[in-house]
């Protein structure tokens, strides 16, 4: 009584309830008394409720409500009492903690702008209490809702208390945060914010316990952001982010991010942004939450439309094995959100589409998300069209494929007054194919094909856009490079121009990866200004170079690509035909063969029109090491016939290509290609009727040219002879001298006839050289063999005899082993004694 606190309730016995706390006393003019705490419940019984605080008098403060008692084992915690109203309103008291298996008590409600009490914690297996609601105040700020209590093991957390609306001038109370879920329980939901002069954000969702779902964030009210979704527990899903609040005339609220998924669970989606009013900016869509292990990332929400449209948000990243979330679409010329990255084994999300704007620039599509290891990347978002005066959004680039996954496809560009290029294809991951480049629109180039991953093909380059009547048409983009072991992508085709437009050039073929072929160059395009064919791509190691594209309308074909190691060069493209005027195009050169590969054939020249000159045949490509050169193409017929193309040079050890044939009109054929150095052919042996000891006559028939034998090899003393040439008659070279009778050398065979020596000093020099060669060499019927000087031959003859006798004698007398004797023999065989030391015989 009279402003004094009530007594505490007694403790319940086994199986009985605790007593209720006594109410605080009322005091007419001063502070009222505080209610007493409820008694603790006995085993199996509920705790008593806390006593209520009493209202204060006219000028007095209100008494605080008593706490709920703790529940006994198996019993529920007592409820906290509401705060009291009056001049100084009070908070609601917290609920009591539940006993094992019992629910926590609910927090008491706040009165008149004061916060509610916090919900009590649930006991093991029990649910946490609900947080008390904030108090309502007529003219000032409303009270905040209290947080929900934490759930016990196996029980859900209590929901946060709701905030209350403020009065005409007051701020609203914020929604309480949901309590955390206990093991196996879900997190509590965050309450919505409140509306009024100062609207508030929604409360955050609580974290889910192990195996439980995170609570959802509360919605924002009146242009204020929603609460963030709670994080899911292990195995549970993250909560959904709250939606932003809508406001009539100012900015809309931002959607909150989705909660992160627990291990094995999905993440929550981001909350959606809301539309702004007439003059307000729109809220940004929330970002999708990250997926937990095994779960997908949340989807990014779309941006919102209005006077200031907003960007779509990025999709969440997928967890291990999960797909990345898709990026949100953007309205009104703003970028779409980027697709989320896929987790290990999961696919990347698709990039959001760009927004469309009625009169200004369209939004660009965002890039696709990167694929996780083993997953494909998401496709790039589509660029959007525009209005009467705006530029168009560019197509997004395809995402990069993860290990084992393909790269995403680049989206096509968009049409309109300012058309845009297609997006580039994404690179393939290891073992995956690169994405194809998007097609260009309206005279803008297509996107380049993505590079293939290890073992994958490169993507195809996008085709250039076609332009109806003006400007240059777009060139086809280059094909993507093939990954190791994969072929390169083909180049995109050039497009035809309109009535007055120039034509796009064909794209160049991509280079082949190791073991893959180069891509083919595309043909040029026809029109007022025809273009050359694209060049063929170079082949990777072991792969063939791509063929050059054909030229159109009097323009040259593309050059064939070079072959990789062991691969063949590509064929040069044919020149284009021109109907009645100008030069016709020359065929392009064939590509060079790789080491060990044949060069590609040259492209053929084309016939000219009625008054046109004819294109020249292309030159054959050079052969790679070990490969033959390509053949030159034939010339062409027409009013101005042309010569045949030149044959390509052979690679090392390869044959030179044949020259092309000349056509009509007295035009010569092409020159044969140069052969590479090969092993020299041996001269023909002399006729069998010639006596061995008698050299044939060396005076040749007038005008005849006799081949000289090849030069000796492997001798330091041998001088190189200049090439024999035909000329006037000169003095004959003397015959080879006969071998001395005492020499151990074999008889000198008949020396072949030498060609006539030229007159003058050159002839005398050549004659001296031949005499020296015949003196120092011997002809064995096929080659000139080096001949040692006479004194050396004589000394070695004597030494051989002495060594042979001495070896026999010494081996017997000194009892040398056979190995020692063979070692000495080897030394004599491989070395020679000179100036008191052994010299190695070469």
UniProtKB/TrEMBL annotation:
Residues 634-643, 749-764 have a biased composition (Low complexity). It comes from the Bacteria. Coiled coil: none annotated. Residues 1-83, 93-148, 184-193, 202-303, 313-377, 391-413, 422-434, 513-524, 533-572, 621-633, 644-675 have a biased composition (Gly residues). Residues 765-821 have a biased composition (Basic residues). Residues 1-148, 184-377, 391-434, 513-572, 621-679, 706-737, 749-821 are annotated as: Disordered. This is PE-PGRS family protein.
């Amino acid at each position: 009584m009279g402003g004094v606190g009530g007594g505490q309730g007694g403790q319940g016995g086994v199986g009985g309830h605790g007593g209720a706390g006594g109410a605080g006393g009322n005091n007419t003019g001063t502070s009222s008394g505080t209610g007493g705490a409820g008694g603790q419940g006995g085993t199996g019984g509920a705790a008593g409720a806390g006593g209520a605080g009493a209202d204060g008098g006219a000028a007095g403060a209100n008494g605080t409500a008593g706490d709920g008692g703790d529940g006994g084992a198996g019993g529920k915690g007592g409820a906290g009492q509401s705060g009291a109203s009056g001049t100084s309103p009070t908070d609601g008291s917290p609920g009591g903690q539940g006993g094992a298996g019992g629910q926590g008590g609910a927090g008491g409600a706040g009165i008149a702008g004061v916060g509610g009490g916090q919900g009590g914690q649930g006991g093991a297996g029990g649910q946490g209490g609900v947080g008390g609601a904030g108090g309502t105040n007529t003219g000032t700020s409303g009270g905040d809702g209290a947080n929900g209590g934490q759930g016990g093991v196996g029980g859900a957390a209590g929901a946060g208390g709701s905030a209350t609306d403020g009065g005409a001038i007051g701020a609203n109370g914020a929604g309480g945060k949901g309590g955390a879920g206990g093991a196996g329980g879900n997190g509590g939901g965050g309450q919505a914010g409140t509306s009024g002069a100062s609207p508030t954000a929604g409360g955050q969702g609580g974290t889910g316990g192990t195996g439980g779902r995170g609570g959802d964030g509360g919605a924002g009210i009146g242009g204020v952001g929603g609460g963030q979704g709670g994080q899911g527990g292990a195995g549970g899903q993250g909560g959904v982010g709250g939606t932003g609040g809508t406001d009539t005339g100012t900015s809309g609220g931002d959607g909150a991010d989705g909660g992160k998924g627990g291990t094995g669970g999905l993440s929550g989606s981001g909350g959606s942004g809301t539309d702004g009013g007439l003059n307000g900016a729109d809220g940004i869509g929330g970002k999708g939450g990250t997926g937990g292990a095994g779960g997908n990332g949340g989807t990014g929400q779309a941006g919102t439309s209005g006077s200031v449209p907003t960007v779509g948000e990025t999709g969440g990243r997928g967890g291990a094995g999960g797909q990345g979330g898709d990026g949100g679409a953007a309205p009104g010329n703003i970028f779409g959100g980027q697709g989320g990255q896929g987790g290990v084994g999961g696919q990347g999300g698709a990039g959001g589409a760009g927004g469309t704007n009625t009169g200004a620039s369209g939004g660009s599509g965002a890039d696709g998300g990167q694929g996780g290891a083993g997953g494909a990347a998401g496709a790039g978002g589509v660029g959007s069209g525009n209005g009467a005066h705006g530029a168009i959004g560019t197509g997004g680039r395809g995402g990069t494929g993860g290990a084992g996954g393909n790269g995403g496809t680049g989206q096509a560009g968009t049409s309109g007054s300012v058309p845009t290029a297609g997006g580039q294809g994404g690179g393939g991951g290891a073992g995956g194919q690169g994405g194809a480049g998007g097609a260009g629109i309206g005279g803008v180039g297509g996107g380049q094909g993505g590079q293939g991953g290890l073992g994958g093909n490169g993507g195809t380059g996008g085709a250039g856009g076609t332009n109806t009547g003006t400007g240059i048409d777009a060139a086809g983009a280059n094909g993507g490079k093939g990954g190791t072991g994969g072929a390169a992508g083909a180049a995109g085709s050039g497009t035809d121009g309109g009535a007055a437009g120039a034509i796009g050039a064909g794209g160049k073929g991509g280079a082949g990866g190791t073991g893959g072929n180069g891509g083919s160059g595309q043909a040029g395009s026809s029109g007022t200004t025809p273009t050359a064919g694209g060049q063929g791509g170079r082949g990777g190691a072991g792969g063939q170079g791509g063929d050059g594209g054909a030229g159109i309308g009097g323009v040259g074909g593309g050059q064939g690509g070079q072959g990789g190691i062991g691969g063949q060069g590509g064929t040069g493209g044919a020149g284009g035909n021109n109907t009645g005027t100008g030069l016709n195009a020359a065929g392009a050169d064939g590509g060079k063969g790789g080491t060990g590969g044949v060069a590609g054939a040259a492209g053929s020249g084309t016939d000219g029109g009625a008054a046109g000159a004819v294109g020249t045949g292309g030159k054959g490509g050079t052969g790679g090491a070990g490969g033959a050169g390509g053949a030159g193409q034939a010339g062409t017929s027409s009013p101005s016939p042309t010569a045949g193309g030149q044959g390509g040079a052979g690679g090392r050890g390869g044959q030179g290509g044949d020259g092309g044939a000349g056509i009509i009109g007295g035009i010569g054929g092409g020159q044969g290609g140069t052969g590479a150095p090969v092993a020299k052919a041996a001269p023909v042996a002399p006729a069998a009727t010639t006596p061995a000891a008698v050299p044939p006559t060396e005076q040749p028939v007038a005008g005849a040219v006799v081949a000289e034998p090849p030069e000796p090899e492997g001798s330091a003393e041998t001088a190189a002879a200049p090439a024999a040439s035909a000329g006037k008659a000169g003095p004959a070279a003397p015959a080879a001298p006969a071998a001395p009778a005492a020499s151990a050398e074999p008889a000198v065979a008949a020396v072949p006839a030498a060609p006539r020596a030229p007159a003058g000093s050159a002839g005398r020099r050549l004659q001296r050289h031949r005499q020296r060669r015949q003196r120092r060499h011997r002809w064995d019927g096929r080659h000139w063999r080096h001949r040692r000087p006479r004194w050396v031959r004589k000394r070695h003859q004597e030494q051989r005899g002495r060594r042979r006798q001495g070896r026999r004698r010494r081996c017997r007398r000194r009892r040398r082993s056979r190995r020692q004797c063979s070692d000495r023999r080897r030394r004599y065989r491989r070395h020679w004694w000179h100036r008191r030391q052994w010299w190695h015989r070469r």
